[in-house]
């Protein structure tokens, strides 16, 4: 609905179609029934105004049990500095040949502007749980962004595509340390050397799922580092 301010003309909010997010835009979906508030990372596949919005995932992504017809969810898209969030309902779910979620077309959008994503160098100790293993492995996060990480470990965490669950803490200011939990997959892994000697393995990890609180903690940490705060 148009929003108006006394003494001014009505401020018309653009529709989702008018925002014209590119197909393939990063699309985070959080289901209201998920107590862990994990975000399922998908891609915008298109929309049919005014009926639905479509989001798809890679074939290797397993949809959570919360992704079912009738489930309520919250979506988040970002293109450059523009962030769009909206409440929605799952209309249908398809798993083959790749995951595809059909969502109710949003009537109300929440729009905001943020600074462009940044990556910072770090030396954060972390624990990694690799798909198929029971023991968490110590590792170090050498750089960090909201979309991915560079992780150094004594041994190789897995082949390309291996699922990795990371746990670590971020010191966002002198009085606040926040826990972070991220789900992702190994995009690439290469041997590391220092002065010609083996120094473990360097992994590029792409974030594919995370609780909303963890995403917000990373963004807060990055903002603090950008402005010269303690990280």
Task: Report on this structure.
- There is one protein chain.
- This protein is mainly β.
- It has two domains: 16-113, Pnp Oxidase, Chain A (Roll), CATH 2.30.110; 120-226, predicted glycosyltransferase like domains (Thrombin, subunit H, Beta Barrel).
- It is built from two helices and 13 strands.
- The chain has helices at 16-19, 212-226; strands at residues 26-31, 38-48, 52-56, 72-79, 82-94, 100-104, 110-113, 120-130, 137-144, 148-153, 163-173, 176-194, 197-211.
- Strands 1, 2, 3, 4, 5, 6, 7, 8, 9, 10, 11, 12 and 13 form a 13-stranded antiparallel beta sheet that branches.
- The radius of gyration is 20 Å and the shape is globular.
- The chain starts with 15 loop residues before the first helix and ends in a 5-residue tail after the last helix.
- The relative contact order is 0.14.
Defining traits:
single chain; 231 residues; mainly beta; Pnp Oxidase, Chain A; 2 domains; 2 helices; 8% helix; 53% strand; disordered N terminus
Report the biggest beta sheet as strand number plus sense, adding barrel if it closes: 13 strands, antiparallel
Shape: globular
Q: Give the topology string: H per helix, E per strand.
A: HEEEEEEEEEEEEEH
Number of helices: 2
CATH topology of the largest domain: Thrombin, subunit H
Short description:
With 231 residues, the protein is mainly beta. Helices cover 8% and strands 53% of the residues.
